[in-house]
Amino acid sequence: MTSQAPSRLSELLARLAAVKGQARSQARAMSGEFYTSPDFAALERDRLFRTQWICIGHEGEVPAAGDYFTTELVGEPLLVVRSADGDIRVFSNVCRHRGSPVAQGAGNASRFVCSYHAWSYGLDGRLLAAPLMVESEVFKKKDCALTTLASERWYGYLFVNLDGQAAPLAPTLAAAIPHIRNYHPEQQHHVFCADEVWNTNWKSLVENFMEGYHLSPLHATTLHAVTPTALCEKLSDGPAFTGYRSNFHPDCPERGPFSGDLTRQEQRSDVFYCVYPSFVVGFCPHFTLYMCLRPLTTGTVGIRWGVTGMTADPQSPVVKDYVEFCKKFSAEDRMQLERLHIGLHSRHYVPGPLAPDAFEGTIWDFWQYISRALGTE
Ligand code: FES
Ligand SMILES: [Fe+2]
Fold first, then answer.
1. Does the CB atom of residue 133 touch ligand 1 within 6 A?
2. Has this prediction a pTM greater than 0.90?
């Protein structure tokens, strides 16, 4: 019997570097350490999550002035606020006095008052008041606003760039628009949102969302009847995204209501996109399902997922039925990905070949991106 020795970080980076330019027909899965190494995860935090555009939610979560929610990204507390002018800003959720988070959870507020010493901030982040700060010579109210982070909205999705150095996001996604525009995501209503933590690596969930190979076997009683594996096809990718289409089984009933602009093919398929590194979205004729992923540890991923659609009422049966359907097949994915993460720790795991482009080509694209973004040589 032989066993594979655990590869070190340098070997993993060399393997990633080799992915660049390798023929797709030669594609093999990544080693377990790609998903389990704390050193590699630290590199991802620095070179992906602190430097790239990361989706942290949807504008539908903050529809009115004063609406806010808090989240975090690689340990950075964040505060997302709709201000009085209708703009949505992303702040560092850290008080400019001695560093306490100034807001918790989600809700509606006219100002944010830090629970520690009651410094208060407006919806635009400006410091409004700081009790008893009369003798300090270094205190200037105008210098103590919450730090505003670079943010961008794309079809209603909220992206943040922690280091403020990333090039604008929208132009990098322009090539995907022809496959998306007819769904009119900008007209859809935000009808459901939830936060979850799964015990798997964030990349495993990106890969799972973006490959159709598992649709028939894993989702035998849910998605197979709608979008069987055999009917999947790869869409063209770009430097910032990849995508695939899952065509409906001929026996699958119409899924509506949908936009009148959908072509017949769009009425009879779903399209899935990953905006690198960690935003995945599926455009179905009647609803859009999205997931904003954040690495918590190598083996845990924070998921903010939600649904938008042409139906406005979150309580309508068509919405409730679709959300329940999503929960059902997501439970199957979660069970599988948490099981997968156990297997990826094995020293006996020898990475196998990837399935053809139509089924797992998006995974190959994703790794090419990671290789580029990490600057592997
Ligand atoms: S840390 Fe916020 S007021 Fe002191
Ligand atoms: Fe799945």
1. no
2. yes
**Closest C-alpha to 281, from 324, 243, 333:** 243
Which tens digit of pLDDT belongs to each residue from 69-111? Answer: 999 999 999 999 999 999 999 999 999 999 999 999 999 999 9
**Nearest atom within ligand 1 for CA of residue 117:** 3
Helix (H, G, I), strand (E, B) or coil at 78: strand
Dist. CA 55 → ligand 2 center (Å): 21
The CB of 116 under 6 Å from ligand 1? The reply is yes
* Burial degree of 366 (CB within 10 A; 0-12, 13-18, 19+): buried
> Topology of 9-52+173-373 in CATH?
Naphthalene 1,2-dioxygenase Alpha Subunit; Chain A, domain 1 (3.90.380)
> 54-161 — its CATH code?
2.102.10.10
| Nearest ligand 1 atom to alpha carbon 114 | 2
**Cβ of 117 less than 6 Å from ligand 1:** yes
